[in-house]
Amino acid sequence: MLERKFSFRSKTAENRLIFQPMEGCDCLYDGSPSEITARKYARLAAGGAGILWLEASAVCSEGRTNLRQMLISEKNVGAFAKLADTIREKALAATGVVPLLFLQLTHSGRQSLQPLILYDNPVYRKAGVQYTVADDGYLDRLPDRFAAAAKLAVRAGFDGIDVKACHGYLLAESLSAFNRAGRYGGSFENRSRLFLRCAEAVAAATGGGTVLASRLGITDMVRKPWGFGTDEDGNADLTEPLILVGKLHAIGAEIVNVTVGNPYYNPHVNRPFRKGPYAAPETPQEGLARFYTLTKAVKAAHPQTAVVMSGLSYYAERALDMAERFLQEGVCDFAGLGRGSIAYPRVYLDWKNGAADKRNMCVLCSKCTEMMRRGEVSGCAVQDPFYREIYKGMNVCAK
Length: 399
Fold this sequence. Notes:
Number of strands: 13
Distance between the termini: 49 Å
Mean pLDDT: 96
Oligomer: single chain
Strand content: 5-15%
Structural class: alpha/beta
Helix content: 25-40%
């Protein structure tokens, strides 16, 4: 199943493996890809994935999480086009397979350099941080910003555009704005308005030749009313998320990349770990079972939408065997690797040849996230010597 092609309306993925968006915090200050960015994607390009889903690109400067987050603009669209061309060239030369390239568009909201929120959430609130509540006028203008960024991405040669709504960022937070007054809060219609308008704007701006996608958080695993897709006890409730996926399909979205939780609050939910910043309140197996159950529910409710399974990196040397099983069971249409891809870009090619090496796998240590949280460029500090040296220096300086 992993080796089967998948056809969207206008594009075809050569196989069912996706290398997931993994932010590197390594772009130039104007948001352009740097040499480090190009190095990362050249390594991933040689891995043979059918879709290479590039990391979060902010749609406006105030929506960046850091000064080295990706940001596409009229001034640097040529640099993005060069990156896309280089990825395709590297992929073709190394594997004979040219991946579809998706660009993820985002506004970082409360995680932005200038923290912007839709409502005061006591669960996510951080002491000492000054938050600004976005007014309706600002939110009214966001769809145009998503549309403008999407047009630039198409000019740069990207095959798909992801309207990101997950992990507590602005569009995801809008979905849980139960306690916001006005047209962007309260009812489900109001809470979903901002996200759906941004998706509609991207669809209109890009036309039928581009795949409309969304990396969608279908449950925050935070109790209602402070989280989306949950009940008052904090358990997953897919009533609204399943309606939302249907609305996305009606707009023209062809693929939903399922994720859960908020990495700033409950990272064990969306990336089960062996070593991490705290003792998780559940076993990794419980988290993996949740991914399976929820992804299966989305696919069963919306067979017309391509669905991506996440969380697979935890399976390490069994990751692609498990992906094959899930695909055969009809749980998903694509298998996504995040941490596992940056640790071992060749894992798919080696797996196909029966030569996947356990020693090269992601060890689930969370060092890549630690590097990001501490303001450094992020990558695999275990398997990649380049990032290993950066990580060592980072910790020496911290002592």
